[in-house]
User: What shape does this take?
Amino acid sequence: MSEIKTVLVTGGMGYIGSHTVIALIEQGYQPIIVDDLANSSPEVLNRLKIITGKDIPFFKGNVCDKAFLEKIFSSHKIDAVIHFAGFKAVGESVEKPLEYYRNNLDSTLTLLEVMTEKGVKNIIFSSSATVYGTPVHVPLTEEDPIGTATNPYGTTKIMQEKIFTDYAFVHKDFNIALLRYFNPIGAHPSGLIGEAPYGTPNNLMPYITQVAVGKLPRLTVFGNDYPTPDGTCIRDYIHVCDLADGHVLALKKLAQNPGLVIYNLGTGKGTSVMELIHAYEKATGVKIPYVIAARRPGDVAENYAGTLKAEKELGFKAKRTIFDSCADSNRWQQKNPKGYN
Ligand code: NAD
Ligand code: UDP
Assistant: This one.
């Protein structure tokens, strides 16, 4: 057993990172945030202070900048790292492959180099269900093979998992948790922090919330001719606060020196696009106008997590319902129609 107290959170100003920072503080950990604000706002820090009552150390900079990272590791006793920093927009990754490969791979390589130099041996990595590629069956379990990604973003996740796996093979004293997230939605129940995409959202929930506040006229449902009960695609939507709790449980696992471990973080329950629209309307009383359009290229019909391994080995079980997620996403968007601006 090793004690983990101080946790460096790369990308801690972003959507999942900021919610995880709260969960860490609530469970007695000391987070230190590193973020270059490439896809987040400095206002997040003020909101985190209101929610937690704490001044959270924040260093603005790029995780690919080795000298910058070395300084932070030299001036703080860091016990573990949670590595959220990275670019994450699927469509943009097709347009800007080099930027995605550079940022996502370099940040991981630099972080691992500095951790090795400084003797910090615990890390959690934000992976994604996208590493499974097109599912051959559902639920997807950790034993299922890594697939082929259909875009550079997904390929960076597969490549980063491979980097961690190869590293763990020779560094047996390192503890690495690869967490494969399914579809994070929802927001902190305070409505003070949430998902704030720049421009028109690509993902379903932020699109729905922007329709709900009248920023967008209607939702386009991409395809209702899939082989699912209502013809629309099925995903595993997990509340971001449940996801955040999963990271704290993974830290506890790392403290037991497990080496490299891999877990899905999902609810185990599939929800279709139409079911999500109806749940949103029921949870919030807001009507979501929609039109049915053609399928979006690259979408798979059905995708949800096998959750037994995380439940058995981490004690992780998603607690919040799809209605909680809808109500919380809606509260965040209603209170912050322009995000953090
Ligand atoms: P986000 O964009 O809200 O947060 C990422 C944060 O990292 C941002 O604040 C950004 O400014 C920062 N960042 C990016 N590159 C950086 C760099 N080189 N140095 C320092 N900071 C940098 O994204 P998120 O939704 O919170 O996702 C967090 C992680 O989880 C990402 O790695 C993402 O790929 C992964 N993930 C997200 C989802 C999802 O649907 N949101 C699903 C699966 C996996
Ligand atoms: N979707 C949709 N309209 C939108 C955005 C998404 O119908 O404006 C559908 C999409 O086709 C998919 C589901 O919602 O079936 C979830 O999409 P998202 O991009 O949020 O997640 P991912 O496809 O990456 O799992």
User: Anything to note?
Assistant: DSSP finds eleven helices and 13 strands in the chain. The chain has a mean pLDDT of 97. The longest helix spans residues 97-118.
